[in-house]
Amino acid sequence: MVNEKLxxxxxxxxxxxxxxxxxxxxxxxxxxxxxxxxxxxxxxILAAYMGLVASYFYIxxxxxxxxxxxxxxxxxxxxxDEEDILLSSNVICLLYEYNKDLDKAKKILxxxxxxxxxxKRYNIVSNGYSNYSHMCMLEEDYTKALEMANLGLEMAKLHxxxxxxxxxxxxxxxxxxxxxLKDFVTSKLLVDEMINDPVLDSFIREKSQCYVLQGYxxxxxxxxxxxxxxxxxxxxxxxxYNDIYFLKVIQDERxxxxxxxxxxxxxxxxxxxxxxxxxxxxxxxxxxLALRLQIKYSIASIEKEANTDYLxxxxxxxxxETTVNGFLKQAQKNNESVICMxxxxxxxxxxxxxxxxxxxxxxxxxxxxxxxxxxxxxDLFARFGGDEFVVILKGITLKEGEIKAEQILETVRxxxxxxxxxxxxxxxxxxxxxNITCSAIYFNDLFNVAxxxxxxxxxxxxxxxxxxx
Length: 469
Hints:
two-stranded antiparallel sheet, 19 helices, 7 strands, 73% helix, elongated
C-alpha cells in the first residue's frame, strides 16, 4: 500500500512541478519524505529532497535550496548510489553558479564529468562540458570555453539514442565562443545552420537563443539594423513562453542598438516597452516574495502539525525521539548531562472505565497543562502515547532532576479535577535517569532505563519518584 502511494505521490510531484505549482510541490515533497521514511525507501526520500531544492530554487529562496541540497547530500552519501551522487552534484553546481561562485562550481563540474564518463551518462557529461564552457565565457576566457564546448559536442555524439537537441545546445556555446574569439566566418556558418535546423521548431527557447547569437554577430560587424532585426525575432519567440528575465536581456540589447542607429522614434517606443517589462518583473518578484512567505507559513504549519500531539498541544513521540538523539550526540561531545523523566497516570484505566474516555482526555490535558507551566522554556516535554509522558532536561545534575520530578509529582497531586461536582484525585509515578549514569548515546537507551524505573515506582506503591536501579 505504501509503495503504491509513493508512486502516485512522485507522479503528482512531477506534474505539479511541470505546471509551476511550487507550493503544492513542496507540500507533497514533505509527505513523500515521511512515507519514504516509513519503509526506508531512500530513492523516494532523495527524490523528495531534490523536488524541494528545485522548487525553492525556482521561487528564488536560495537559502532554503542550499539547506535542502545539504540534507540531500548527507542522505546520498549514506544511502545513494553513484547516479544519485551525480544528480546531487549537478544541482549543487547550479546553485554555486547562481551565486557567482564559479571556482567551486567548476571544481564540482570536473568531478561530475569524471563520474559521468565512468557511468557512461554521456548526456550528463555533455551538459557538464556545456556548463563549464558557459562559466568560462562569463570570465571571458573564450579559448577555454571553445575547448569545453567541443568536448561537450563529442559527448553528445556518444549519447544513445541519438538526441539532436543535445548537440544543438552544445553548438550554441561553440558559436558564442567563436564570436568571442572574433572568428566571424565559422560562427556565422554555425549560427545560420542552427537557425535553419527544423529540430528547433520544437525547441523555441533554443531557437530564440540562436537569434540572440545572430544579433551579437551582426552587432560585432556594426550591422546594427540587421542585429536589431535578429534580437526582435528572438523577442517574439521569448514572449511566447514568457521568460521575462531573458526578455530584459533582449530589450537591453535592442535599446543599445537603437541608440547606435540614432532612431529617436523607435527609441521612444522601446522605452515604453521597457518600462512595461520592468513593471512586469516587479510584479513577478513581488508575487514570488508573497509565495515564499506563504510557503514558509504553510511549512511551519505542516511541521507543527507533524511534531505536535493533537490532544495536548505539546510535542509528540516522533519529535521527542529525533530531537533527543541530537541532544545526546552533542552531550557526548561536551560531557554534558541530559536528564530523562518518564511518567504516567496511576490507575488511568480505572478513570477511563469509571468516568468515560472524554473525561480521561480532559485529565490528560490538565496534567499536560500543569506540567508545562512549571517546566523551563528550554525543557522538552512530550506525550509519548496514551497517558505516558516524557520530560527531557539539560544542564542540571541527576539530583536536581529528582527534585524537579518531585515538584511535578506534587503539582499533579494538587490538581483540582472534578466530575459531577466530585474532586477526582490524580497521581502519577515517575522514573528518572540521566545519560551519564546509564551511558546512553541514543534516546531509546535513555528512555528504556527511565521506563524501567517508572515501573519500579509503580510496583513500590505508585505516586512516587524512582531514580535508582
